[in-house]
């Protein structure tokens, strides 16, 4: 009977150890999602495979033992899934009370673009009052005056032309090239890649940029009590990547401009 009791205790301890390992492993895998927004978040064949935010998050979190699995999900759906705890985070979300935001992994400056032969220039919000601007729906541009302008005028089709969907940025560039609207607003690094892929670099011109750059954090679900641990791990990892020079290498690889936010 004593031996049976000992065996039962050992068996119970073994099961507890296995469960503990399983729980620890589950907590160390983070599912972070968003839609295609290259060069920050890049998709290929229906999967998020790379991008500046994806690579930085993956490498930074690995330093603290977290494995990041990235998923290609439309931004609105990704926000909902993170808010319910179905996934752990969202790349570059808009400000939303449902998420806990990390420090910015990058800052992105949005600029206005016209056809190369045009002369219009952005000179503050007042210069937009008689111009139709093409934008991507549900995206942020500066967390400031421009975002407020879009919200105020989003249903005024003589001021705002909105595209939706995973190819909304490309759709807007094609509309601009076809002169369906005179001005397009897009993040600088994103537009550089869109124009290059479409062979349109010399068909458009930059016509001024917004005064405030948009911070690009990861938004973590509030439904998991580990979110503070994840934010600390990401912050620590980014600091170590910066110190090692790897962050600069990634910026160079993805042609991410360094933006002074001070």
UniProtKB/TrEMBL annotation:
Q: Any signal peptide, and if so, which residues?
A: 1-26
State the UniProt keywords alphabetically.
Answer: Signal
Specify the superkingdom: Bacteria
Does the record carry Signal as a key word? yes
* Name used for this protein in its record: Bacterial extracellular solute-binding protein, family 3
Organism equals Solimicrobium silvestre
Q: What is the lineage of its organism?
A: Bacteria, Pseudomonadati, Pseudomonadota, Betaproteobacteria, Burkholderiales
